[in-house]
Amino acid sequence: MSRYRIAAIPADGIGPEVIGAGLRVLEALQRLDPELRLDVKHFPWGSDYYRKNGVMMPADGLDSLRNFDAIYFGAVGDPVIPDHVTLWGLRLAICQGFDQYANVRPTRILRGLESPLRNCGQADLDWVIVRENSEGEYAGNGGRTHRGTPIEVGTEVAIFTRAGVERIMCFAFELARQRKRRKLTVVTKSNAQRHGMVLWDEVATSVGRDYPDVTVDRELVDAMTVRMVMKPSSIDVVVATNLHADILSDLAAALAGSLGIAPTANLDPTRKNPSMFEPIHGSAFDITGKGVANPIGAFWTAALMLDHLGERANAKRLMEAIETVTASDVRSPDLGGTARTDEVTDAVCEALAGVPAAAG
Ligand code: IPM
Ligand code: MG
Fold this sequence. Notes:
Order of helices and strands: EHEHHEHEEEEHEHEHEHEEHHH
Strand order of the largest sheet: 2-1-3-12-11-4-5-10-8-9
CATH architecture of the largest domain: 3-Layer(aba) Sandwich
Largest sheet: 10 strands, mixed
Mean pLDDT: 95
Helix content: 25-40%
Structural class: alpha/beta
Bound molecules: 3-isopropylmalic acid, magnesium ion
Low-confidence stretches: none
CATH class of the largest domain: Alpha Beta
Radius of gyration: 20 Å
Distance between the termini: 17 Å
Number of helices: 11
């Protein structure tokens, strides 16, 4: 029996709806595989918790999570509480506190879905974006002085350390090496940003020497947006800074059909701390509580989590069930359908039963 402790933090907006759906699918998977056992504990943290307690999570929050095997996270963000408070109080506090320095965002067009690029005859994409997740533009380094006066100053200083860049490069090269095409695109803006970004280029060159089997190319981030649209099949693995990859991954998700399907893993590759898995989409207040959120992003996220836990066969089995459903006409409104969250969830649970265990 393989037993894992999962901390569920559904948090804000549609987070509880999609994490609830994801947990239902994981239960269905456990019914089919009696060897798999997920002990899930819920943590009621987030913006409602903040309204009652003045903090997004308790001061010893990280300690309560430390002994879990993985964290399954919904979304943070609230219409009233400022975004930087909710974000730094919970999601970034966990990412930084657990040194989850590698943010991994796979993108491909799931069976049956259509890319907005289809009319350009460019419908083929299969990418993994590796986002530096511990420093860079999200380092939290800066300040404000002369507040409220005409001479007010705000600084937001991006931090790039050799150690930080080296470890994300090694991670990206290792990942590229495991894929069929073995290609890595290093994205920077080293023409205009002549310090930290030049350090990225230099470190990429030196780390690359250990990976002669990986083909490397470089792209400036602005040109990368064009390449993603015009030559999607030329891209395999991409490594970029925290902010650049944040932006590129939204574009990637849209090009794959919808932001509603895209997953993320926030990994501590050393495995000293638990890693955290979340759908990319965020809290989506416009549809919160309506029961129409697309749970596919949370399901794909659950597959990434299983994969990280070493449950490769179950991860594949779940992906197979997800794609059986995306290929059917059971689709949520963001994918042009009318199915509700529950209906998509039921369909994936049903499809799971039809996927032979050997498919995994
Ligand atoms: C993401 C999100 C977050 C980020 C937001 C919610 C701050 O856009 O995970 O991509 O920028 O990291
Ligand atoms: Mg983003």
